[in-house]
Each structure stands twice: as C-alpha cells, then as structure tokens.
Amino acid sequence: MTVPVDAGRRRIEELLEQHEGQVLRRWFEIAGAMSGGHVDRGGAAVPFGEIYQALRRSLGDSHDGSDLRGLLADLSRSRARQGFTPSETANVVFGLKEAVYEIAEADGSPEALRGFVWFSRIVDDHGLFTFETYAAARERIISDQAEQLLELSTPVVKLWEGIVAVPLIGTLDSARTQVVMEKLLQMLVETGSEHAVIDITGVPAVDTQVAQHLLKTVVAARLMGAECVISGIRPQIAHTIVTLGIEFGDIVTKASLADALAHALRQSGVEFVKGRGRRVTVRTEEN
Amino acid sequence: MTSPSELPISGNSDVVLIRQQVRTVAVEVGLSLVDQTKIVTAASELARNALVYAGGGRVRIEIVHNNVRAGLRLTVSDDGPGIPDIDQALVDGWTTGNGLGLGLSGSRRLVDEFDLRSVPGEGTLITVTKWAR
Fold first, then answer.
1. From the CA of A107, how many Å to the nearest CA of chain B?
2. Strand-pair category, B70-78 with B57-65
3. Which of A237, A240, A246 to mutate to test the interface with B (most CBs of B within 10 A)?
4. Which of A37, A107, A177, A240 could form a disulfide with A213 if both were Cys (CB 3.0 to 4.6 A apart)?
5. How far is residue A144's CA from residue A140's CA, in Å, rounded to a whole number?
6. Under CATH, which number does the domain A157-284 receive?
7. CB contact under 8 A, B36 and A173
8. In 3D, which of A199, A197, A192, A185 has the Cα closest to residue A161?
9. Contact indicator for A225, A156 with CB cutoff of 8 Å
C-alpha cells in the first residue's frame, strides 16, 4: 500500500469515528429515500448502528470482516423473504457512500478525498456481496416453494371405508408422478383400502408420457392388491387417447368421480337403498 | 399473436410452456375443444421426442391460411442423430426409448397434415398442421 493511500485511509477511519452520529443519521435518511421511503417497511429495520460498527472493525488493523458479512447476509436474506427488490436491498449499503462522502467533502483535505475513493471501493464490494446473498436467498425460496407445491398438489383423500382417491391437477411429469404413486401406495397400506380412484379432471392433456405414468401407478397398486379406477376422462381427452392409440386394457375408466365412487362402492358390496322421506340407508352385503 | 413464435426445447419445463402456448394459439385460430386438445397433445409428443432423442430443439408455432380455413402449424426441428428408418419409426409401439412407442405415430393421427424429414447425423424436421373446421 502506497503512503498517500495509507494516509487517506487513516483519515477516513478518523472521520468515521468522529462523525459517527452524523454519518449514521444521514445514512438512515439516504437509504430511506433510495428505497422509496420503505426502510422500515414490514418491520425490516436495518441495524445501521451494528453494521456501522462491524464495518469499522473490518477496516481496522484486525481486518475482521466476518461480523460484517454475517450482518449483511442476514439483511439480504430477510429482505429477500419480505419481497424487497434487489436494488432496494443493495441501495441500503450504497447509501453509506453518500453519507461518508458528505463528511469527506466537508473535511476538504486531499487525504480525506483520496481515502474516500478507497472506502468507496470497499462499500461497492459489500454492496455486491449483499446482491449475491439476496439472489441466493431468492433461489432458495423458489426451490422451497417448488417442493412445497409438489407436496401440496398431491393430496390422497379417503372417500369411503376402503376407498381412497387422488385428484390430479396440472401437469404430470415424472417427479410428480413419483410423489403421487408413493403417496397413493402408502395411503393404501395405511387405510387398508382395496380401491383407489385416480381423478384426472384437472389434467389438461393426456399424452403418452402421462398415460404411461398412469398405467404404471395402476399396475403398482394392483401388485398391492388394490383395484384402481381412472375417472374424470372428458370427451376431448377420450378422443385424443383413442387417436393416439393408447390402450388402457382392462383398467376401469369413468367419466366422473361420482361414477367412479359408485363403481368402487358396488365392487366392495355397498348398496344404497332409497328409503322413504329423505333418509338414505346403507347396507353392506355379507360375503 | 400474428407473427409466428419460436420457442426453444431444452427441458421438461419448456414442454409445458410449449403446450400452454399452443393452447393459446389454438383458441385464437378457432379450433374446437377436441382439436385444441389434439394439437396440444401432438405438440407435447413431438417436443418431448426432440428433447429425449435429440437432447433439445426448437418449435415454431404459426397461424396459416388456405383458401377457406385457418389452421395452426407447428414446426419442430432438432440437430440430433436423425431417424434412420422413418417407416419403422412410424409403426405403433416401436420405440428405441422406454416410452409406449405411440408418440410419433399417434401424433400423425392427431393432426391433418404431417411431414417428417430426417437426415441421419444431421437432425429431424417435423411439420404438422391442424385446420379449423
């Protein structure tokens, strides 16, 4: 490090110490203006004081920047979760440059201005670090949500004693089919069900891949001793399946979930008898 | 959409995007619900073939007109290994992968016009058209 830079650096460190209150106040104002007056939005208070102290420690002889990095990473992560934009987040850090420039200018000495250039580069580095942490946090959130969606979108519901149903919605890719199949087979065991209804009303298109996934699920359920009915086959889907040449073999398919439930109930020997008045009696046949 | 759009095929999510886009254009052209579903399914099959057998490709979606009707044309192209025996590839149940072997032959039945050109080692170009009734 050359002598003038060293002198400038020392001058900035002195200024940072002497004008701490002023810099912090200005930094708070500037950061607020830069992020559209939302510094404290949603309780996302920035620990300006703590960051300032950590920054001063990192500039000192010890060069211990780990506290500062930790604080900045926490800040980016919490802001990413609260829906701040990356610019709003990085601007919090960049706001410090302007606040420090004001005191360096007021000081007016060449050391202070030279030191500011050095300081500015350091703040830029920290700003970029904030940006990177922010992006990483967002990616993490997206992958978490994708996983949650996978879980959410595959409920297995019990329709009747011994009958479970999986209402499928959206695109059936390999990953989702895997989850559906596992959940269905698990549920068959847990509930001791012998009938399963796979409802595809919410699947927009059945191509050969989706059909193959469905067929595999049905075969797997059969291996466990359960019979599957595929329901929710709309006219356009039926047309397409026939034209494609997909054969569902001896798998029972129904137009609606209600038909499938009625079929499964018949198979398990449950009969509905229309009673007088509004009463519905259920009778189970003895085998 | 008036100008044709070209979409890349490089992953499973692209196949989903292509299906959605084809659905939108099919509605615009005025295809019936059954025909919409057919062309969407054909798009799904052809795009997945490009992905699985050629590692990716492109699909062009455009609206075409003949004298009386409007139609939707899909052009799926890739730079993959090509299809050595096209007649064999169009036989129901024939597959070199682990699918049902109905994607290509089934797609031909789902559309009104089907044109397949393939040069081994250079790639494959498939053009399909569905006309509004």
1. 58
2. antiparallel
3. A240
4. A177
5. 6
6. 3.30.750.24
7. no
8. A192
9. no
Phi/psi at A252 (5° precision): -75, 130
Say if residues A27 and A99 touch (Cβ distance below 8 Å). Answer: yes
Q: Could you say which of A174, A207, A236 has the minimum Cβ distance to residue B45?
A: A207
- Smallest CA–CA distance from B13 into chain A, residue: A173
CB contact under 8 A, B44 and A205: yes
Q: Which two tokens stand for residue B41?
A: 């399914």
pLDDT in tens, A121-164: 989 988 899 889 888 888 888 888 877 776 666 788 899 999 99
Taking the C-alpha atoms of residue A181 and residue A164, their distance in angstroms, rounded to an integer, is 13
Kindly report the CATH number that applies to the domain delimited by A3-147. 1.10.490
Tens of pLDDT, residues B40-92: 999 999 999 999 999 999 999 999 998 889 999 999 999 999 999 999 999 98
DSSP annotation of A41 reads G
CATH of B5-131, one of 3.40.50.720, 2.40.100.10, 3.30.300.20, 3.30.565.10: 3.30.565.10
Task: Please name the residues in contact with A151: beta carbons below 8 A apart, sequence gap of 6 or more.
Answer: A179
Query: Which range, A59-63, A213-217, A247-251, B58-62, is most confident?
Result: B58-62
Q: Do residues B89 and B104 touch, judged by C-beta distance below 8 A?
A: yes
Q: Dig out the tokens for A53 from the structure.
A: 């102290």
User: Searching chain B, which residue's CA lies closest to the CA of residue A174?
Assistant: B12
Q: How far apart are the first and last CA of chain A?
A: 94
Task: Give the DSSP letter of residue A268.
Answer: T
Closest residue in B to A203 (Cα–Cα): B37
